[in-house]
Amino acid sequence: MAYQYIGLKEINGPLVVLDEVENASFDELVELHLENGSVRLGRIVQIMGKRVVVQVFEGTNTLSLGNTTTRFTGKPMEMPLSKELLGRIFNGAGKPIDGLGDIYPDTYADINGQPINPVSRTYPRNYIRTGISSIDALMTLIRGQKLPIFSDSGLSHNKLAVQIVRQAKIAEEAGQGFAIVFAAMGVKNDVADYFKAKFEESGVLERVAMFINLSNDPIIERILTPRCALTAAEYLAYQHNMHILVILTDMTSYAEAVREFSSSKGEIPGRKGYPGYLYSDFASLYERAGVIKGSTGSVTQIPILTMPNGDITHPIPDLTGYITEGQIVLDRDLAQQGIYPPIAVLPSLSRLMKDGIGEGYTRSDHSSVANQLFACYAKVSDARSLASVIGEEELSPTDKSYLEFGRQFEQYFLQQGENEDRTIEQTLDLGWDLLCLLPKEELDRIDSDLLFQFYDSNRADRFRKRKAF
C-alpha cells in the first residue's frame, strides 16, 4: 500500500527527513511532489523508529519543508528491461537520454539485484578475446570473471576501454550472443562525447548499452549508475542467455560519491574518510559477475579505477583487489616511453586464466608461453639493473639477449595500435618469435615437446628482419 505525507521535517544536502512514518522499508522508492507539480524520486537510506531519511536523486534544491508531498511506493527502485536496451544511451538512473523515447519493458527488476546463492554458481570457463596481446596472452579475461584495470590520472585507460569495447569477442557458439554494458561515472562532457563518438564510428553501438553519469550530475545518481548497468547485464545474461561484458569507469568517482553521501549522513569515517562499509558496498557490485547454473549466459566485469596519486595501497584499489580475481595495472613509465597500452606485466595477473585457456579454448601452448614470457620479462629488469652498474658492454651474452628480449617485447608485444586487433594465434606466435631471441636452455618453463614443435633459432632472425622493414 502506498502512503502519502505532507511536509518535511528537515532538509540536509541530498537528504530529507520525515517523522511519524509508518511501515517504511529500507531502500523503498519514494516520490516527492513539489508545489510546481514536478516529481522527484528518492529512496529510503535510514530508518530510526518512525523517522526515515530519504536520499533524493535529483537533489533538494527548491524543495519546501511545508508544501512537499511525499509518497511511499512500497517497493524498491526498479528498472524497465527489454532487449531494446542494446544500442541505447541512458543517464545514471536508467532513463533514456538519446532522444529515442522510452524503453517498452518486458519486465521490471530491482536495481540492487538478487543475491546469488554460491551453490548455484558454476566455475568460470572459456575466455573473452580483447584483441590486445598483453591481456589475451598474459592476463586472459575469463567469462564470468571480474578483472579490474588499475590506472592513474592522465593515463590512457579511456582509450583502452574504448578499444576493449570495440574489439571484444567470444568464440562463436550456437544460439549465444555477446553484448557490452558500458557505465561511465562522474565523467566530463568531453569524455562522454568521446565514448559516444568512438562507439558510433566503429559501429559497435548497436551491441552496447551505455549508462552515462556526468560530473555535474547529482552524486546520488552516480551511486545508482553501476547498479542500473548491472541490472541490465543480469537481465540480458540470465534471461536471454547472452555473454555480457560490463565495463565500469571510473570506480574512484563512485567511491568519492559514496564518501560524500556517507559524510552527509553524519557517519563515522574510516580509512581516508571513506565509510567503513566501502568493502561490502564494492562487494555488492563486483559479486554480481559470474555464471549461474541453468543459464548459458554470463556476466563479466572490467571495473576501471584511477589510483589516487598512483598509490596501489589506497583503499579503493586495495579493497577492489581483495574482491576481484586479479588486476591489470597501467604503468606511467611505459606511457612516457610512448608505449600503448602501457600495461605493467609483472604486477598484473588473472587468477582464473589457467582454467579458461589451453586446448579447447585458446591453444595448447598458451599456458606455457604465458609462464615463460612472465619469467623472462622478470629477468629483464635484473639485466637492466646490472647494466646500469657495470655497463651493457660488460654483460654476459645471456644478459645481453635478455636486454634485447626486453626491448623487443615492449616495442612489439606490449606496443599495439589503437585500432590493431590481434587474434589469439597472432599473439601466441608473436610470443614464440620473442622467446626464440633467447637461448633454448633459458626456456625452462616450457616442456621439450613444445620446444621441439615451436622453437627455431632461425625464427629470431626472421623476426628481426621482418621488424626492420
Automatic annotation (TrEMBL):
The keyword Ion transport applies. Residues 131-350 form the ATPase F1/V1/A1 complex alpha/beta subunit nucleotide-binding domain. GO terms for biological process: proton motive force-driven plasma membrane ATP synthesis; vacuolar acidification. InterPro entries: ATP-synt_VA_C, ATPase_F1/V1/A1_a/bsu_N, ATPase_F1/V1/A1_a/bsu_nucl-bd, P-loop_NTPase, V-ATPase_su_B/beta. One of its GO terms (molecular function) is proton-transporting ATPase activity, rotational mechanism. Produces ATP from ADP in the presence of a proton gradient across the membrane. The V-type beta chain is a regulatory subunit. Belongs to the ATPase alpha/beta chains family. This is V-type ATP synthase beta chain. It comes from [Clostridium] methylpentosum DSM 5476. The gene is atpB.
